[in-house]
Design a protein that fits this description.
Elements: E1 5-9, H1 13-25, E2 30-34, H2 38-47, E3 52-53, H3 57-61, E4 66-69, H4 76-83, E5 92-95, H5 101-110, E6 115-116, E7 119-121, E8 142-145, H6 153-165, E9 169-172, H7 175-202, H8 208-213, H9 219-226, H10 230-239, H11 241-263, H12 267-286
Parallel strand pairs: 1-2, 1-4, 2-3, 4-5, 5-6, 8-9
Antiparallel strand pairs: 7-8
Helix pairs in contact: 4-5, 7-9, 7-11
Bound molecules: NADP nicotinamide-adenine-dinucleotide phosphate (NAP).
């Protein structure tokens, strides 16, 4: 199945990066793009994120073999409905949303009879908007496809080949399992970062100035994550509610156990946990998922 004409809906960090990556790695493909925000459309044109910026979603997808929705997960249903009537009969519709079960449901309901293969490139930054996009975002990163039961296998293979051409390693997963894994590895860490940064700024005995001045003690790394796009992350928590609440329940229990250990002076419990977590950090570095440089490679001169 050849995917020569590719439409990208939503031209922010993910959509823009996708357009630039296609231009670099699949130079023969034609790309069209649409964003509901006129300023974003103008900027996408100036930056050359896609070959043609269309004025409507329908115009963007009318010739497309592959349509990729790069909008916040809460906007997937509306974005899909808007383009439904203009889709070519054999077009593949996919997305890049951070949660998968609810997006899969939204897309299949909004596009009855269409070939829907949801996807999640596990690649991003805390930045958003068209200027944040860059061509190498997906290189060496995972892309998880969650084809619904009975999905067209040829379409799934074509989508796999597409993401591999952009430099990603593809994994196929059930949508519910994806949501649980990502709740642990991405969604809860973001929630913790949002919480600790909020708590620090609310503390009455510590001034804002001190929080910023002494942030290198660990807080600074949380602030990077807590600077992530509010719309995107609001939608992630609302759409992956069940998995997030399940993991959050476990996390709260573990946190209470640590609270008890600290209160009762149980150093062994603390030491054993911290030893186990250090090993996890080592495994992540051994798997090439992060840099071993101290303080994430920051310069200290
Ligand atoms: P972004 O930079 O904010 O870009 C999203 C763009 O989509 C915005 O310009 C937005 O316009 C536009 N949009 C919203 N509703 C639309 C609609 N119905 N039709 C057309 N355009 C619409 O967000 P992003 O970071 O690229 O995230 C996009 C998707 O990628 C999300 O589903 C997110 O979960 C997923 N993702 C993000 C990351 C990450 O690290 N950022 C990583 C992996 C996956 P408005 O500003 O007017 O709403």
């Amino acid at each position: 199945m050849s995917l020569n004409n590719i439409a990208i809906i939503g031209l922010g960090l993910l959509g823009g990066s996708l357009g630039l990556a296609i231009k670099e790695r699949l130079p023969d493909a034609n790309t069209t793009g649409f964003d509901r925000d006129l300023d974003v459309r103008k900027r996408a044109g100036e930056l050359g994120l896609v070959g043609t910026v269309a004025d409507t979603a329908s115009d963007a997808v009318s010739d497309a073999d592959l349509v990729i929705l790069c909008v916040p997960v809460g906007a997937m249903s509306a974005a899909a409905s808007e383009l439904a009537a203009a889709l070519k009969p054999n077009a593949i519709v996919s997305d890049v949303g951070s949660s998968k079960a609810s997006v899969s449901k939204a897309l299949t309901e909004a596009l009855p009879g269409a070939t829907v293969i949801p996807a999640h490139p596990v690649a991003g930054t805390e930045r958003s908007g068209p200027d944040a996009g860059f061509a190498t975002l997906f290189e060496g990163r995972w892309c998880i496809l969650t084809p619904p039961e009975g999905a067209d296998e040829a379409a799934a293979s074509s989508l796999r080949a597409f993401w591999e051409a952009l430099g990603s390693t593809v994994e196929i997963m059930d949508a519910a399992h994806h949501d649980l894994v990502l709740a642990v590895t991405s969604h809860i860490p973001h929630l913790i970062a949002y919480t600790i940064v909020g708590t620090a700024s609310d503390l009455e005995d510590v001034t804002q100035g001190e929080v910023i001045k002494y942030s290198a003690g660990g807080f600074r790394d949380f602030t990077r994550i807590a600077a992530s796009d509010p719309t995107m992350w609001r939608d992630v928590f609302l759409s992956n509610r069940e998995a997030v609440l399940e993991v959050l329940g476990r996390f709260s229990e573990d946190l209470t156990a640590l609270q008890r250990a600290i209160r009762s002076g149980d150093g062994d419990t603390l030491f054993d946990l911290f030893t186990r977590t250090r090993d996890i950090r080592r495994s992540i570095i051994d798997m090439g998922q992060d840099d071993a440089a101290p303080d994430f490679g920051r310069k200290h001169d």
